[in-house]
Structures are given as structure tokens and as C-alpha cells.
Amino acid sequence: MSSSPEPGYTPTTAVPSVFPGDGEMAQLCREADWAATPLGPVDGWPQSLKTVAATVLGSGFPMILVWGPELVQVYNDAYVPLIGRKHPAALGMPTHECWPEIRHLQEPVFRRVFGGETVNLAEARYPLVRNGFTEDLYFDATFVPVPLETGGIGGSVSTLFDVTSRVTARALEAEREKFQLLVEHSNDGHALFDSEGRLLWANRLMSERLGYTLKELRTLTIPDINPDFTLAWYRSVFERARRERVRPFETVHRRKDGTTFPVEITPTVVEMAEGTRMFSSVRDITERRQAEAERERLLAQAEAARMEAEAANRAKSEFLAIMSHELRTPLNAISGYTDLMEMGIHGPVTEAQRKALGRIQLSQQHLLGLINDVLNYARIETGSVRYDVGDVHVGDLLATVEGLIEPQMRSKGLTLVVDDCPPDLAVRADPEKLRQILLNLLSNAAKFTDPGGHVALTCEPDGERVLLTVRDTGIGIPADKLEAIFDPFVQVRSDLTRSAEGTGLGLAISRDLARGMDGELTAESTPGEGSRFVLHLPRSVPGES
User: Fold this and answer.
1) What is the reported pLDDT for 502?
2) Which of 203, 204, 206 lies closest to 226 in space, CA to CA?
3) Where does residue 22 rank: exposed (0-12), middle (13-18), buried (19+ CB within 10 A)?
4) Lesser CB count within 10 Å: N end or C end of the chain?
5) What DSSP string runs through 118-185?
6) Cβ atoms 284, 251 nearer than 8 A
7) Separation between Cα atoms, residue 237 and residue 267, nearest integer Å
């Protein structure tokens, strides 16, 4: 509330009585130009304002008076530490200009006070900017309305006590209790050491694992717990952890009875009121070490079994190769002597004898074919197959294969259809191996297709690949055997016809040969309708070799 000075007014007339005392704020108030503030000259102040201002300045408690609609501030010496670097400019300043950051908190309070209500706040949070940055401070405060002589409320006088340390301490204690609860119920051991490696505190689990009581633990140092650590080593880790994060490491701990067990330690340096400490989380890794040892044992066992299986497989393949060579020699001799007898070298041959010799030749050729299959498979298994990969023109190859397989198809009463391929279509393959695969697929189609059926050989470019397809109208392959037909020694449908007997190696050899040329062999089939085998090979690009 401001008022005009009376005639003969002298600025210093009432100042000493309103602002008594020798304190800093009394002196500042006496020197202030109150006429330049909304309150006006001191002589014009109402008596209630003068009385309360003198009371505030004389109090030993932190007090502030705000007056009038502008809420102009007058505060005492005890209040100065609360206001920070805003002192002394805050004297005579409207409170909302002084504290814009908490205006939303102050306005509801002052609205109640100027309504005649005394407001008490306990541990009220105020985010104040008093030293250039925001601080969360807590106050116990009382806001008391100051009545005017003429009625109504002229201002508010407040007593404030900074209780931030109390609130913070209580929050820290709550966090400490929460941390203590978590640590005590942790599955890891935890311990606190000083810079000299003395154990200051440990949780229950740490005590149980080491076999010491908590009281006994507090008499130990790092070397008592870890036989590998010296105090010099600990100090070096301590200093390093003060500068940077130290990664978890594995070591051993020694129990009270002298036995040891493996642990993983995560060290962290923390700053505490008592000084710098090392907080260590200790994980018992006995089970992990046992699991790792078991894993290593199983891996070694599996590797030994693999090597043993590979050795047995090599021995089998070598045996098959040797036996195949040994069997081919007498079979070739049988073929040779049969030819000589048929030519009449050893005397005239009757028609009946010629038929018998023909049966011998057919049996010899069938047996030689079986042995060749075994020998080819043995070569693939032992990795002794060599591939002479080059550009192979598909049209020329299919024409060659057609000429070789046509007699078999004709004798079986089957119709063979071979696609006309684009003249420039070529694949990257070994021509001999490719011819062997196609003849094998066509021969299988002939075996498992009844007379009157159809067999087709087609070619189709497919991006960077070429698809060579053999399709038949044969008996088909049951769905439960489709995945197994490429396994060695598996018969497709030997249960249906004895005439289709063989080693069961043809498809296994064909697929391995296809993969050896960076290709693939796949199959689709519908029982009773036929089968479709597709050979996928890399397409030859003109200009590349």
C-alpha cells in the first residue's frame, strides 16, 4: 500500500524507528529509496506495515514480509542465505518478479492468505533459481495475514525453515533401506572394502559362502579372502576403478576352512560420506564352471565320435572301392570269354548255346552295372571324384542322351519326348557327369513306368540357373519316402516289382554329382500319377568362362 507524503516530509524522519538495529538488512532498508517502489515513502506507510517490518528485521528466524497487491518484499538477515545471489536486489522487489519460477506455487498460497487464512506448509518443495541454476529445496513455512487498520489484509508475513537436508536424508535413508533389502535378498554376495582392502561390510550370502560370521568378516582383508590377490594389486584395481569402469573378472575365493570356489567379481568405486569405497558384487560360478567342463567333455566326445564315424566311413568306402575293382576283373573276363565263345573260337555254337551265352552277357552287364554304381559312390564318398567343368550346350547334350536311352524306352513300350532347347542355352557342368545324371534319371523313369506310359525330358532357363526336368507317368513315390530317395541304398519302390531292383545308389550318386557342379537335384511326386525330377545347374553366361 503506498501513500503520498505529508507537507514538510523528510525521507529520514520515520526510517530509524521502522528499521531499527545494526544488521545488514536494517542498514539496507534505511538506505533504500522506498519512494521508487510501489510502497512509496516510509512516512506514508500504514502503522501495520511499519510495525510488521520492524518485527521482521528484529527476528532471528528467516522471515519475509510481502505487502500490497504487488507483493513487495522486505526480509531479514536470517532470510539472506535462502535467497542466494538474488540478494540484495530482491529487497523492495515484487515477489513474482523475484521468483517467477515458483509463481504457480505462490499464487494459490497468497490468495488464501489475503483472504484472511493462515497457511502452514510442511516440507513444501520449491524449485528455486537462486544461484543461476535450479535447485530442489524443501521448506517448513507459515504464511500469516497482516490486517490493515482500515480493515482488510495488507500483506503476508512468513517464517521459513530450509529442511532440504532433512528431506534428503530421509530419502537417502529410504534408498539405503531399499538397497539393503535388495542386497540381502540377492543371489550374489556383496561386500564393501576401503582403499586399503579392509572388509567393512558384507551381506548374509557373502558370509554364508565364506563360512565366516558377519562380525568375523569385518576383521578380514582382501588377501584373507582371495589367495591370489595382494594389497598392492588391490590398490591398483582400486585406483583404476576410480578412473574408469572395470570389467567383471573371474578368480577364486577362499573359505574359512581353506577350500576355494570360483567366483566372478564386479568391482565399483563409490563415494560415501565416510570416504571412497570399493563395492564388490561376487557371483559364485561353480555351477557355470561345471557346466562349461561338461560342455567341453561332450564336445570332445562328439568330436571323437565324429572322427571315428568318418574313419569308419572312409574304411567302408575304401573297402567298397577295392572290392568293386576286384569284382570287375573276373566280370570283364567273363564278358571276354563269352564273346570268344559266341564268335566260335572254341568250335561251332548251337542256337541254344547262343541264347545261353546271351543270358550270361545280360547277367554280366547287370552285375557290372551294380558294381559300377558302388564304385562311383565310393569315389564320391572318398572325395576322389574330379570335375572337368566347362560350358555345355544343353540342346546337343539332350540329343546325345536321347540316342542312348531310346532303345531302353522302345523295349519297354514307352514314349519319350525331348524338348527342343534354345540353341544358345548352355550350362556350367562336367559333360560326362551331366550325361550320367540324365541317363540315371531317364533309366529310373523307364523302370518305374508301365508300358504305354510317357517320359519327357525338358529344359528351361530360370534366371541364373537352367532347369533340366525328367517327368514320367509312372507309379510315383509315396510322400513318406520322398525325402529318403536320395539316401544311399534306398529303393524307390522295390516292393512293387522285382524288375526294378538295383543298389539304391543311383539317385544318391546323381544328387552328389549335381552338388559337386554347384547344382541341385530335387523331386516331386504323386503316387499313381508319376514323378518329376528337376536338375538345377548354373547357367553359362556368354563371354564368361
Assistant:
1) 54
2) 206
3) exposed
4) C
5) -EEEEEEEEEEESSSSEEEEEEEEEEEEEE-TTSSEEEEEEEEEE-HHHHHHHHHHHHHHHHHHHHHT
6) no
7) 9
Does the predicted model carry a pTM greater than 0.85? no
Q: Using a CB cutoff of 8 Å and minimum separation of 24, what contacts does 167-176 make? A: 167/123, 167/138
Could you identify the residue written with the cell 562380525?
215
C-alpha cell at 25: 538488512
CA 208 to chain centre: 35
Contact of 509 with 489, CB cutoff 8 Å: no
Secondary structure element (H or E) that encloses residue 335, with its range: helix 286-342
Inform me whether the pLDDT recorded for 357 exceeds 50. Answer: yes
CA–CA separation, 69 and 89 (whole Å): 20
Q: Residue 496's pLDDT is what?
A: 46
- pLDDT at position 371, please? 67
From CA 231, how far away is CA 218, in angstroms rounded? Answer: 16
Cell output for 413: 513300350
User: From CA 73, how far away is CA 91, in angstroms rounded?
Assistant: 6
Q: Is 323 helix (H, G, I), strand (E, B) or coil?
A: helix
The b-or-e profile of 449-458 (16+ CB within 10 A means b, else e) is beeebbbbbb
Cell of 531: 514323378
Helix pair angle (47-58, 24-31), 10° resolution: 150
Least confident of 271-285, 336-350, 509-523: 336-350
Residue 412: all three cell numbers together: 519297354
Distance CA 22, CA 515 (A): 104
147 close to 154: Cβ distance less than 8 angstroms: yes
Which of helix, strand or coil describes residue 318? helix
- Cβ 257 vs Cβ 211: under 8 Å: yes
Full strand arrangement of the beta sheet holding 454-462: 415-418, 454-462, 465-472, 530-538, 520-526
Q: What is the pLDDT of residue 480?
A: 81
Helix (H) or strand (E) holding 471: strand 465-472
Q: Is the distance from CB of 538 to CB of 514 less than 8 angstroms?
A: no
